[in-house]
Specification:
By secondary structure, the protein is α+β, with helices and mostly antiparallel strands. It folds into three domains: about 160 residues, Beta-Lactamase; about 90 residues, no CATH class; about 150 residues, Heat Shock Protein 90. The chain contains 13 helices and twelve strands. The longest helix is centred in the N-terminal third of the chain and has 53 residues. It is rod-shaped, with a radius of gyration of 51 Å. The structure holds adenosine-5'-triphosphate and magnesium ion.
Length: about 450
């Protein structure tokens, strides 16, 4: 069932239940309060009529004329003789049989309380039964003969113009509430349908779709969250396209080189030439393998599939190990290496963290000047573990600082050096996996410092 239909149905059910409850309450009110009051009011009128007619000793004819007028003004009156003969004034009764209690008026009883005791149909509805038993009665004597006078208000006079106004009012309230609920629920379902079509647009990769819902309620909040999600998806999509573009480009150029130089190798070449081309092919193949390795790490971290295997890791030992493995590169460039490593431990994935140090120290060597300096420090301070990797290399410009952690970003100057531009983005991902932060300070031509902070409590 659609939401709108469900809304209307529930409204109708609620209205019906309310009417049912209202009926029960008014019935209780009728039975406990109104019924007796009405009985007494009619009895009062009947008794006053009888007294007046008796006191003024008016004739039967004059009484009849008088009662006829009463009959016209909204009462049903029966004047009954002891032998059962009935004269009716006003609307006829449907049932004319007198019961024992009514007859007892001729046997000394003064009053008959039929309105109060009448139980022909369900509670309040019995009030409208047009039966002579549903009256009040009193004795009276006219021209020396015993009579009983029975009286009730007739149903048409009960429903006066005022009652019509009330019924009109209730009907108008009922109809306008249904129309109101229809309008409100249509507005609500319209917003939901709009959200549904927006979701379908997003599913079809249309991230530009403008959602027109502006509301301050929960649906408005949902629309705001939707817009936020849309923006994030659009950014991710843009980044993904850029990434694929970069990857294809970075794969394409070494592959072209390998293809070109391997074709050259088919020709007759001097041994020095073929050695040179072989070297190029090997370098390009290494570049491809490095790129694939880096990409694999990144995608696995992205998908959260990297089997994170956290153990206690001695950072100082890892840094030592990396420096040792890169010693030949350090010596080749004539770099001066300073290390100050205090024994510090964090809870981390050994190989991921190792990869981060390799990238950072590798950069410090790669982007250093000849005979430059590198210093690597690690220490604990105020329950934080700090690692600093500092070089005296080519440095970075202010605007490059924000971008170096992006995937495939490489500063132009670095283009002539080997690299993929993925190293630092991997470092950032790895560190964020370990709740560690990384900051960089750099001055062009002076050098760069990377500071990594592990919050010990969080690791
Ligand atoms: P990869 O590390 O993937 O082989 P890469 O070194 O070019 O390639 P990143 O490590 O991500 O890529 O570094 C991004 C860019 O930041 C580099 O191209 C370089 O321009 C700059 N950069 C990184 N480290 C330094 C540094 N210590 N000094 C100067 N520039 C740096
Ligand atoms: Mg690098």
């Amino acid at each position: 069932m659609k939401l709108l239909q469900r809304f209307i149905l529930s409204t109708l059910i609620i209205i019906s239940i309310s009417i049912f409850i209202g009926l029960i309450c008014s019935n209780i009110l009728y039975v406990t309060l109104v019924k007796e009051k009405m009985n007494n009011r009619y009895l009062d009128i009947a008794e006053q009529l009888a007294t007046q007619m008796e006191d003024h000793e008016i004739s039967l004819q004059a009484s009849s004329d008088f009662l006829k007028i009463m009959g016209h003004s909204g009462y049903q009156i029966a004047l009954v003789k002891e032998n059962g003969e009935q004269i009716i004034f006003g609307e006829q009764f449907h049932g004319n049989e007198l019961n024992d209690q009514m007859r007892s008026l001729f046997e000394g009883e003064n009053t008959y309380h039929g309105v109060k005791s009448f139980k022909n149909s369900y509670l309040m509805m019995s009030h409208f039964t047009n039966d002579i038993e549903n009256t009040v009665g009193t004795r009276l004597e006219l021209e020396g003969e015993e009579y009983a006078l029975f009286l009730r208000s007739n149903n048409t006079s009960f429903f006066t113009e005022f009652h019509l106004i009330i019924i009109g009012f209730i009907f108008a309230v009922f109809v306008s509430s249904i129309i109101g609920i229809l309008l409100v629920s249509r507005k609500l379902t319209q917003s939901l349908s709009e959200l549904t079509s927006a979701t379908q647009e997003i599913a079809n990769h249309n991230y530009e779709y403008t959602l027109m819902i502006r509301r301050k309620d929960e649906i408005g909040q949902l629309a705001d969250s939707f817009r936020m999600m849309q923006q994030k998806l659009a950014n991710t999509d843009k980044a993904r396209k850029k990434f694929v573009n970069n990857v294809s480009h970075d794969f394409q150029s070494p592959l072209l080189n390998i293809q070109g130089y391997s074709e050259l190798l088919d020709r007759e070449l001097s041994s020095s030439e073929s050695k040179k081309y072989n070297n190029i092919i090997q370098t390009e193949a290494k570049r491809l393998s490095n790129l694939t390795k880096q990409l694999l790490i990144l995608t696995s971290i992205d998908q959260g599939k990297y089997l994170i295997n956290k153990k206690l890791v001695r950072i100082d030992e890892q840094l030592h190990q990396v420096v040792r493995s890169m010693l030949w590169r350090i010596e080749e460039k004539g770099l001066e290496f300073k290390i100050d490593l205090q024994p510090v431990t964090v809870y981390a994935d050994r190989s991921l963290l190792m990869n981060a140090w390799e990238n950072l120290i590798g950069n410090a060597i790669k982007y250093n000047k000849e005979y430059g300096e590198i210093s690597v420090q690690c220490y604990e301070e105020k329950s934080r573990i700090i690692v600093k990797i500092k070089d005296t290399g080519i440095g970075l410009e202010e605007q490059a600082l924000e971008k170096i952690f992006e995937r495939f970003y490489r500063v132009d100057q670095a283009r002539n050096k080997e690299g993929t531009g993925l190293g630092l983005s991997i470092v950032r991902e790895v560190l964020s996996y370990h709740n560690a932060s990384i900051e960089v300070e750099s001055n062009i031509n002076e050098g760069t410092t990377f500071t990594i902070v592990f919050d010990v409590k969080e690791v």
